[in-house]
Structures are given as structure tokens and as C-alpha cells.
Amino acid sequence: MLYAMSQATETPVIEFRDVAYRVDGHEILDALNLQVRRGETLVLLGRSGSGKTSTLKLVNCLLSASSGDVLVNGVANRDADVIALRRSIGYVIQEVGLLPHYTVRQNVGLVPKISGWPPDLISSRVEDLMKLVGLNPDLASRYPHQLSGGQRQRVGVARALAADPEILLMDEPFGALDPLTRDELQREFLALQQSLQKTVLFVTHDLREALRLGSRIALMEAGRLVTVLPPQEFVRSEDRWATAYVRAFGGDLGSIADRRSS
Fold it and tell me: How many domains does the chain have?
């Protein structure tokens, strides 16, 4: 089984500084301070309503912080060109979000096309990415409804990688898949991350997935950051929230964390 070796540096690519996010006076996030290092996969772990997805959406300005700063490569994203920022960040969600009237080829090549890439370069990029994510070239002319769930998710990953972004935001990308397909795509993600070394912010509520994929795990509870630890340390942590998560999932979690770091 493949487990990625982290080659992350200490340089923060994404940084949250005293970030709060409120909706109608309700605190969704409070006093969030967190750094995502270059080349790492930082997993945001927590129950539904803990603030994981809101944190993710603050990075590419799908949401705006009520206070504090979200920085991407040292620049507060409120001062950035939002369109340019979003095009520079790959975004993968559980529902995939493919355009139903576009073929696989058109979906994968969408961001390069609107960014002005020449057609021959787009075609070459789409072909390379389909191979990279394990999609048969014969699928390029099909539409999303003609694909399996696993194939659609692979197209979503390929589309997120199309313009070669430095950052990937992944929101429960494998959560709706059957266990075998989910396991297969987790393996493929690890292999991709080994070769591409993107900076990834990954949301999940599944501790096993977090241990398997994450360089570090950031546990969130009720809109607050509880702890940030590497997988091995998370499993053995005495923090009460981390301990509760480990107890809830049970099984031999230590072996997953050990393999992740080997």
C-alpha cells in the first residue's frame, strides 16, 4: 500500500490569522489561526458543523471572513483579484460539479480555455491528465451522466489540476463513493501527491481517511481549531477531543498512522 512521504517545507502557502466568520450573528468560525505549509496535505477533520467547509471556502473567496485575514502566498485574499485567485487554485468537491452539457474533454480543459491557452496545448494537457488520473482516453467524448461515480470524481480531480495550480482545495472528495472505489481513489491521490507535491487543504469527517492522506491533521470542533498534529501523534494524543475521535473510530488506527509516516 502506498503512503505519501511529506516533503513539505515550513513556508506557509495558506495562512489564517485570527479569522472569524459569522452568519446572522452566529459564529461559524472563531479565532482561527492556522498555516498550511508548501507541499503538504493538511486535513481539516471534524464533525458536521465544525467549520471545516467554511474554512476551505474562505481560501478561494467563496466566503469572506468577518474579521481577521486569510493569506495566500503572503497576500490577503481580500486584496486579490478574485477571478485570478480562483483560477490559480484547484477545487474538488464531493458532488464533483461537472458541467452536464460538456464532455469530459471540455470539462477538463475548461480553466485552460478561459485562461486563453491555445487549443493544441489544451488538447495535450487534457490527454496527459486523463492518463494521470487513470481515465481511459475513450471516455473523453462522453458526458458526465455516462460515467460512473468514480470516473466522474477522477474527471473532477483532472479538471482541478488542469491549469497546474499550486494549491488544491478538496472538500469530502471521496465521501459519496462506495468503499472499494474510495480506497482506490485514495491510493491514486497518494501517488499523485508523491509526484506532484501540491499544497492540499483536504476536508473529511473520516479519521481513517485523515490518517491515511494527511501530512498533518487539524481537528475542529464547534468552529474552533482544537489541535494540529501529524498522524502518529494524533492517534497517541492525550487531547480530549482527539482521544474522543480515536475512540469513536476504534480499530487499529495506529497502524494506519505508522504506515503514513513510513
Answer: 1
Neighbour-count burial for 75-114, b at 16+ CB within 10 Å, e otherwise: eebeebeeeebbbbbbbbbbebebeeeebbbbbbbbbbee
Strands of 127-180, DSSP E: 167-171
Q: Using one digit for the tens of pLDDT, what is the confidence trace for 71-101? A: 999 999 988 999 999 988 999 987 668 899 9
Domain-embedded: residue 79: no
Domain range enclosing 146: 100-165
Place of cell 486569510: 70
Q: What is the mean pLDDT of the chain?
A: 89
**Residue 155 forms part of a structural domain:** yes
Query: Which residues are bridge partners to 216 per DSSP?
Result: 42
Residue 139 lies in a domain: yes
Phi, psi at 156, each rounded to 5°? -60, -40
Cα gap 47→45, rounded to integer Å? 7
Q: Are 172 and 92 in contact (CB under 8 A)?
A: no
Residue 143: inside a domain, yes or no?
Answer: yes
Dihedral pair phi/psi, residue 93, rounded to 5°: -120, 165
Residues 96-127 have pLDDT tens digits of 688 999 999 999 999 999 989 999 999 999 99
Question: pTM value?
Answer: 0.88
What's the confidence (pLDDT) of residue 55?
97
